[in-house]
Amino acid sequence: xxxxxxxxxxxxxxxxxxxxxxxxxxxxxxxxxxxxxxxxxxxxxxxxxxxxxxxxxxxxxxxxxxxxxxxxxxxxxxxxxxxxxxxxxxxxxxxxxxxxxxxxxxxxxxxxxxxxxxxxxxxxxxxxxxxxxxxxxxxxxxxxxxxxxxxxxxxxxxxxxxxxxxxxxxxxxxxxxxxxxxxxxxxxxxxxxxxxxxxxxxxxxxxxxxxxxxxxxxxxxxxxx
Length: 225
Known about the structure:
The chain is mainly beta. It has one helix at about 1-30, and strands at about 35-40, 45, 50-55, 65-70, 75-80, 90, 100-105, 110-120, 125, 130-135, 140-145, 150, 155-170, 175-190, 200-210, 215-225. The strands form three sheets. Strands 2, 4, 5, 8, 9 and 10 form a six-stranded mixed beta sheet that branches.
C-alpha cells in the first residue's frame, strides 16, 4: 500500500510539472513580438512629421497603444490604435500575422519619450522606451536681395538671413536648383547670370530648409536686360 502511494505521488508530481511546463510554453509562445518601431531612438535627429509606427507579429492582437510624453512631463498620454481601420493598422503578410500600425500624434515640438504596448488575450508586451525630437515650425527666411522688380544684367546678388541653420537655394522659373549655402544663418553670394539666359521677366524662388525638413520660400520677380 505504501508503495502504491509513492507511485501515485510521483505520478501526481509529474502531472503538476507537465501542466506548469505547458502553461509556461503556451504563455511564451503566445507573446506578441515587436519587430520595429519609428521614430528611431535618436534624439539628435530632428523630425518634422509627428508620425509613430510599429510593426509586430501577432495572429490575434486585441489592443495596440502608443504611450508618449514630452521629456519634462510626468504623465504619459495614451492613444489606442483602431485595429479594424486599415488607415491605422493593416496586415503586412498573407498569413495575417505581421501587422503595421501608424498614427499622427498631437505632440508638442521638442524632445519626447515614447513606447508601444501590444496585447493579446493572454499577454502584453512593451517596446523599449525611445526618444525623438520634433520640429514642425518653418524657418523664418528673410531675403534682402534681390528685391522685387530688380533690373539685372550680369549678376544675381543673394543676401539675407534664416533664424536657424538651413540649406538655402534658389530656382529661376521653377527650373533647376542652384545652391546658395548649406547649414547657414546668413548668406551673401554673388552669382553670374548664365550666358544665353533669356531677357525679360523672370520669377526667382528662394528656399530655406531646416534640419527637420521644414521649408520656407520667398519669391521675387526680376527683369534681365
